[in-house]
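Title: Prediction job returns without error message
Component: structure pipeline
Severity: low
Priority: P3
Assignee: unassigned

Description:
Job completed but the reporter wants confirmation the result is attached to the right record. Sequence as submitted:
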Amino acid sequence: MTKKLNSTDQSLPRRKFVQAAGAAGAGLMFIRPELVRGTQANSSLGLGIIGCGGRGNHVGGEFVNNTETRVVALADPFDDRLTATRDSFDKMNEAKSLGKIPAANIFKGARAYEKLVGSKDVDIVLVTSPPYFHPEHFAAAVAAGKHVYLEKPVATDVHGCKQVMKTGQQADGKVSIHVGFQKRHSDAYRAVVERIHGGEIGDVVLGQTFYYTNDLDRQNKPGMSEVEARLRNWVFDKALSGDILVEQNIHIIDVCNWVLKSHPLKAMGTGGRVTRKDVGDVWDHFMVTFFYPNDVKVSFNSNQFRNKVYRMQGERFFGTKGVAETHHRGPMKVALNSGSVWDAGTEDPLGSAVANKAKAFVAGIRAGRFDNEARQGAETTLTTILGRTAAYTGREQSWDALVKSDAKWDLKLNLDALENGSAVSMK
């Protein structure tokens, strides 16, 4: 599915990549921010959701419950997801004395996103479609002058990451762009990272990170077409999801880039499919070593096994003066060689992280301060692709060779089948 990468080719320096990825493209028209409805303090912002699965419902709910935002439009290929999501948000809207989602703003089909971003009711677009489509959906929303909350990963291949960076450059200062790395808005995580950056543990010399979790539920049903089964089961599909390292484990890798203020220079890895061979083509475990500047090495292990008894996700960073330890659920501590320990005082650091991020996003829009996380999101996604490529090939993979490859995956999926009615739709 991927182009063959030359692990010895390092002819594209990072700064040239950033310049190339950020070069302005033609054909985009922007609406001036002051003309986007909903930016005034006394009016709620209209939120349109592309992709009505679990993540779209969760993040959309955080917006509605924690900001002056109402869901006004939905786009998805399937009737049942549109119906369930519409019912859910109609109840949320009514609880806040807001109107129901207009029937005219319920868009079905593989290209439904085009109609959603064109709706005058939509101020913010929440992109929670399968990650393969993120660059295309993101570009369409930005071209329509909408603020965008783009879920991670921003793409599933190198080419898509470059597209996202290019679109982000074009959007800079015109609309606000957030990428769904909620750990950066966790009070506990921020406190730990601030202490690391402040030198409390000295120079970071080694990282140990891990994401061990359960298998995921299958979404396909008997009688579905191949197209529908792949789209509903996208988390098990390499091209649609990017594999578990890119789609799920990316939260850990983003913390590594955040703490070390860089992306890795190269990676080595392995992994495979051992316990889960009944569905899709993604791997069920990875073991990767990332090599960051200043000779800092970070180990990363993950699995997605049929295992209901052990789940653990977190990061440890060892420095010359101590160690910092962070977990999705569990201790958030900085321990020094002197024996002193600082504790963040919570074992649920992500409890309010998505809400915090939604609040910050909306506050920035209202203040006319348009954030732009496209580059950060693309660099973290590229970091996971670096690890994935090293594991797939079994060879050391350099950042420069990866970026130069411009690898683009072929989805090999006839989306027109959905539009033509040949895909079975659940009612």
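Comment from assignee: result matches the submitted record. Residues 14-182+358-374+414-419 form a domain with the Rossmann fold fold (CATH 3.40.50.720).
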